[in-house]
Task: inverse folding
């Protein structure tokens, strides 16, 4: 550690134009790698990461190498440095291992870092993981974490370790990172007497009633009306015995077994307590963007679930409505500090609602349609197949699944897909009137038994037809079969050994194998929308673009948000907020218009119908078109425009969903008897 201190001192003396200098202790690196299950860095060495603009590389790199060698260090591979920088703003990855943390943050002079870190490691035996960032030329901010569990009795006492670490820093000439509400007794040392008086004078002048942030920064010795006098006294008392109190808390948390009652599943329970409350999810959440209310964000949902698990609130319709909104877009998964499977959790909650006698009134209507007619819309099976005009098989290795939406509201998608397969002389099975819904809406509604029955029925039908691979136009069906069917089949003890593949992925494979080639140029400009269940759920970002690039004459103009960062169409919000659907649709169309493209290309009947109707409503210059329609046109296969029927079906959907809400299940008195 002394070498690290000397290295940092030498580095700052050189006054190199470096953007950022970060430090990680061995215990910090070990915990981070354990949480991510990605082991690339040594766990017995102190690591320093330096970041600077590439044009400065020649000026800086040789000096860094020289200083590193002088202080017994070595330069790691650049790839590892890039990985570290990419993770810079995710310092709490390992909170999941806790699932709680005791945190402490201090600022120290560089020449005292070694003494501080050595004392913390001597006292806590590596339990306190520390990472730091240089602040200025002679100081470093150090953030320390210790794993704990807020569900254990010793957790409140263990938090005194945070105060103990601050005390160690203060003995080395350091100070708390900030004052806030808990450390107002340190405000004088933090700001200096004159600066503190200046702050207090200014606050009194603009806030004479003490309405804004009462109890923060200003100590009770100055602010006689401070509401935190008792808190300050308690903190002083805790400070006097922080070492012993913290030790008692650590011992209690280690001795107490980690078995706790929870009404929720183990993984959801663990992730609820692991949530870092960082708020990264808020800025990208589809429903929060439309209605910025805290419970609409994943962070807000986890806070509510925390209180539910602790028995502080019931799972009633009010709580359920707060937890319900989610489009399953999975955007929150991409930025989650602790890498929780959030979208899956919100899906699992639907079964929890059902167990607590709650149901979504809109999905109850859809459930009746699915059980009685086999599809979302309640369209009779024969009427739903009017688009099918090519020969199909009853047995074979490949099957095509048209789905509820791609065979009704946007039946041009199913027609395009089957005509393309027929054009390429690829025989395929279609189940015609036997094809039911995939069951997505039963899962969304929490109707587990109904869903299990459908899973069993469909898997038996697949087995009888000898199918090995099933192709889908609908990403929702594709995701349901790929994930929910596998899970339910395992739970029910039945086989599910079929490969499920989206039609766009299949077309990309045919192009790569030279089995699908185009000669007719389309000569138009397009932009492409990554549907959530094809993109973020399964990572198929390149395949649709491969198909687009293979078609001559197409010019792809990408939108601002694409691939992992692509916006959600918002259609699933229809079950609880039609205004959110409109918000998401308009926002995406505006992005598409900005590219100047003639067409917005989709690969999903839900996204397609949402954007098709929104384009018509807005009178937009950009028009929606499905990717299979471009393929069909490039193969000179006739296509049809679904726009007219899209409006009819979407109006029907609005009528169905206008009063949709999560509500208690009411059992008629006669049924009870």
Result:
């Amino acid at each position: 550690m002394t070498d690290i201190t000397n290295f940092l001192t030498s580095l700052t003396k050189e006054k190199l134009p470096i953007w950022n200098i970060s430090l990680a202790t061995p215990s910090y690196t070990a915990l981070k790698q354990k949480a991510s299950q990605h082991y690339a860095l040594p766990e017995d060495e102190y690591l320093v990461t330096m970041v600077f603009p590439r044009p400065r590389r020649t000026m800086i790199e040789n000096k860094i190498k020289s200083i590193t060698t002088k202080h017994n260090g070595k330069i790691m591979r650049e790839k590892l440095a890039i990985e570290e920088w990419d993770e810079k703003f995710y310092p709490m990855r390992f909170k999941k291992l806790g699932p709680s943390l005791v945190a402490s943050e201090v600022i120290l002079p560089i020449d005292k870092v070694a003494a501080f870190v050595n004392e913390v490691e001597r006292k806590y035996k590596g339990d306190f993981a520390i990472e730091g960032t240089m602040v200025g030329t002679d100081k470093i901010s150090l953030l320390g974490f210790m794993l704990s569990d807020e569900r254990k009795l010793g957790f409140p006492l263990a938090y005194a370790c945070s105060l103990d670490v601050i005390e160690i820093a203060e003995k080395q000439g350091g100070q708390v990172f900030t004052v806030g509400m808990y450390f107002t007794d340190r405000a004088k040392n933090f700001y200096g007497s004159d600066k503190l008086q200046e702050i207090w004078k200014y606050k009194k002048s603009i806030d004479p009633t003490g309405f804004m942030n009462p109890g923060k920064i200003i100590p009770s010795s100055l602010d006689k009306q401070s509401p935190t006098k008792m808190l300050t006294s308690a903190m002083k008392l805790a400070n006097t015995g922080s070492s012993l109190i913290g030790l008692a808390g650590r011992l209690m948390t280690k001795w107490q077994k980690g078995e706790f009652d929870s009404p929720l599943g183990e993984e959801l329970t663990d992730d609820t307590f692991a949530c870092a409350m960082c708020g990264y999810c808020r800025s990208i959440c589809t429903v929060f963007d439309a209605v910025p209310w805290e419970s609409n964000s994943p962070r807000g949902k986890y806070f509510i679930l925390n209180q539910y698990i602790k028995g502080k609130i019931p799972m009633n319709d009010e709580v359920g409505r707060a937890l319900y909104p989610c489009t399953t877009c999975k955007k929150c998964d991409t930025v989650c500090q602790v890498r929780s499977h959030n979208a899956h959790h919100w899906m699992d909650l639907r079964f929890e609602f059902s167990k607590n006698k709650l149901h979504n009134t809109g999905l109850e209507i859809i459930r009746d349609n699915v059980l009685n007619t086999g599809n979302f819309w309640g369209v009779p099976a024969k009427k739903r197949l009017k688009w099918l005009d090519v020969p199909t098989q009853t047995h074979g290795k490949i099957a095509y699944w048209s789905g509820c939406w791609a065979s009704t509201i946007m039946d041009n998608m199913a027609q395009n897909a089957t005509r393309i397969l027929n054009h390429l002389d690829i025989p395929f099975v279609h189940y015609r009137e036997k094809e039911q819904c995939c069951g997505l809406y039963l899962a969304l509604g929490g109707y587990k038994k109904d869903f299990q029955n459908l899973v069993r029925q469909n898997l038996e039908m697949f087995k009888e037809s000898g199918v090995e691979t099933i192709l889908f136009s609908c990403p929702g069906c594709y995701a349901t079969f790929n994930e929910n069917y596998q899970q339910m089949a395992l739970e029910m003890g039945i086989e599910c050994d079929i490969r499920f593949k989206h039609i766009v992925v299949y077309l990309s494979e045919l192009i790569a194998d030279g089995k699908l080639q185009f000669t007719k140029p389309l000569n138009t400009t397009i932009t492409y929308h990554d549907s959530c269940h094809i993109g973020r759920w399964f990572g198929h970002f390149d395949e649709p673009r491969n198909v687009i690039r293979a078609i001559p004459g197409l010019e792809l103009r990408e939108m601002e948000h694409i691939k992992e960062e692509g916006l959600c169409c918002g259609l699933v919000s229809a079950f609880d907020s039609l205004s959110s659907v409109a918000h998401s649709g308009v926002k995406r169309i505006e992005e598409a218009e900005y590219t100047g493209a003639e067409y917005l290309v989709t690969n999903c009947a839900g996204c397609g119908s949402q954007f098709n109707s929104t384009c018509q409503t807005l009178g937009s210059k950009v028009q929606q078109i499905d990717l299979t329609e471009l393929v069909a046109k490039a193969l000179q296969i006739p296509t049809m425009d679904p726009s007219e029927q899209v409006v009819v079906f979407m109006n029907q959907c609005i009528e169905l969903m206008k009063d949709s809400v999560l509500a208690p299940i009411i059992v008629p008195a006669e049924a009870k008897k």
The chain has three domains: 1-260, 266-356, 514-657. The two ends are 76 Å apart (CA to CA).
